[in-house]
Amino acid sequence: MQSTLYYKKYCLPCNTSYLKQQLPKTASRELGIHEQVADFVKLRNKLLDDNEFSCRRCIEFSDHLRLTRHLQVLRQKRDELSYQTSAQALLLSEDYGNCLKVLRELNFIDKDNLITIKGRVAAQINEDTLLLTELIFENKLQQRGCSEIAAMLCPLTAQHNATKDKSNERDCYISTTVANGDVINTLKAEVANMANRIDSIERRYGVSDARRGQDPTFGLMEAVYQWAEGMSFEQITHLTDAHEGIIVRCIQRLNEVLKDIRNAGRIIGDNTLVQKMIDTSAAIRRDIVFAASLYTTEEE
């Protein structure tokens, strides 16, 4: 730190009279400071020698020196910002450490911060990674039918609430028109309870809200359930007050989630899970929602 102050005081100022001042002696025990000060002295002596540093004869020397100093300051700021956004700085941040504690608690990494099989599965998930991975490893999907799987996962891709009071979203009861209300609300409870558990762990370790996943929304569960059952798109639009585009986007994103889970199932060797995802994808990939003339979707 002291060596930096010496540099700024005696080597950077634009007024060249500073070059003729004597550097005060220092009793600092900072490692390497004496060698650095000696280097600064040699540099100063070169600056004082017109033969060594002929540009001092330039009539705009002071202006050029000022610009050079300003450029150096900007470069230092750039380097500092680059470091602050680097992986090394991230490792030292408190929020990052808190996230590691959450991953360790959920067994995504071990005590040495090495990725576990659960962590490898999570790496395949692009939508609400923690929640979806927990549902997989808690066997919440393997015993469900295609319509139930579609309804259970759609809260991760939907953008429509089941209630106007967002704070009550996870606790509200979903009233259904066609589907069995008990089935829909049982599926909802599975997702809500898992989300609450993860939130509790994140709060315990002080993870900031900005790092948490998107809150699941349950407003399209019945519509997606009936879509997977074979109901027409026109019919499911009467099961919700959501706009048609929101329904379409939810189902399209749901298909991407199913692909992620299928890939995860292959990693852990769960053929039942893989086949469930293939069958569920086949059940929802139809009609206007995936019509190429209206909507662009990624090929298998």
Automatic annotation (TrEMBL):
Entry GO terms, CC: Ski complex
Keyword Chaperone: no
A molecular function GO annotation: RNA helicase activity
Source species, domain of life: Eukaryota
Domain ATP-dependent RNA helicase Ski2/MTR4 C-terminal: start-end pairs: 110-296
Catalytic activity: ATP + H2O = ADP + phosphate + H(+)
Identification of the protein by name: DSHCT domain-containing protein
